[in-house]
Design goal:
By secondary structure, the protein is α+β, with helices and mostly antiparallel strands. The chain contains 7 helices and 9 strands, in the order αααααβαββββββββα. A hairpin with a 2-residue loop joins strand 5 and strand 6 (164-171). The longest helix has 35 residues, at 217-251. It is elongated. Keywords: DNA-binding, Hydrolase, Protease, Transcription, Transcription regulation.
């Protein structure tokens, strides 16, 4: 009875703080004013559904309504939390894509040092089509982009489609019906592929990644050497072009 009394008092305080009448709150709960009055006066218990709806109405946690505990972390986007879709949950995510609140509370995370925004999600990478840029198990920070045509050429994107989740690099070719996608993995048999724009549920730009893999020093050094070689080849090409131009002018 003491717990019921405390709940009733908290509900009455919350209602008055928000300037609501009993009839308005009762209407939100789809019950009569008389039934709600009995809850506030601690004469009747309160249903779970009503507790959840009241927590949304007053923007407090259900724990506060039940126990009076205020100092709990609210897990939602307004508090910096981003939902994580693990690789094993990709199929379920696509199946429930058009349903709201399809994430379990345990699948929301707050990333230190990262400024979250609305319409962001975390996706776990599966497969090696984007190796070495992305490795299987990496977690991507993705931002919704409603207008595909606004995405810059060469950007890393994540596409949610009926057939699966694709992580590729976009290549703009001014095609109004299809989107051209490229894999970073040179060993991929299908380096370039096209996807119909009408088949895309959602397009997201990759803003960053979280990786549990640290490349060995010799791999980093090798990549640095390859980059230097590529730069040297580009320089030689430029010099040959200039030399060829001079030879052409001499023949005139």
């Amino acid at each position: 009875m003491n717990k019921r009394l405390s709940i009733g008092e908290r509900l009455k305080t919350l209602r008055k703080q928000n300037g609501f009448s009993q009839s308005l709150v009762a209407e939100k709960l789809y019950i009569s004013q008389a039934a709600y009055s009995l809850i506030e006066n601690s004469q009747n218990g309160i249903a779970v559904d009503h507790i959840i709806n009241l927590s949304k109405l007053y923007k407090v946690t259900t724990d506060f309504i039940l126990k009076g505990e205020r100092f709990l972390i609210r897990i939602d986007p307004t508090n910096g939390f981003i939902p994580l879709i693990k690789a094993s949950a990709h199929a379920g995510f696509i199946k429930n894509f058009h349903e709201e609140n399809s994430f379990e509370v345990a699948d929301w995370y707050r990333i230190p040092g990262f400024n979250p925004a609305f319409e962001q999600k975390l996706f776990e990478v599966s497969g090696d089509s984007m190796t070495p840029t992305l490795l299987s198990g990496d977690v991507l920070i993705c931002q919704d982009q409603p207008k595909i045509d606004n995405i810059l050429d060469g950007s890393l994107i994540l596409l949610v489609t009926e057939s699966g989740i694709l992580i590729k690099r976009i290549r703009l070719d001014n095609n109004t019906d299809y989107l051209l996608l490229e894999s970073d993995n040179e060993l991929e048999t299908e380096q370039l592929k096209k996807i119909r724009k009408s088949d895309i549920y959602q397009a997201m730009v990759v803003r960053g990644k979280i990786s549990n893999v640290i490349l060995p020093h010799h791999q980093i050094a090798s990549k640095g050497k390859i980059q230097n070689m590529e730069e040297a080849i580009d320089f030689l090409k430029m010099e040959l072009f200039k030399l060829n131009k001079k030879l052409i002018n001499l023949d005139k």
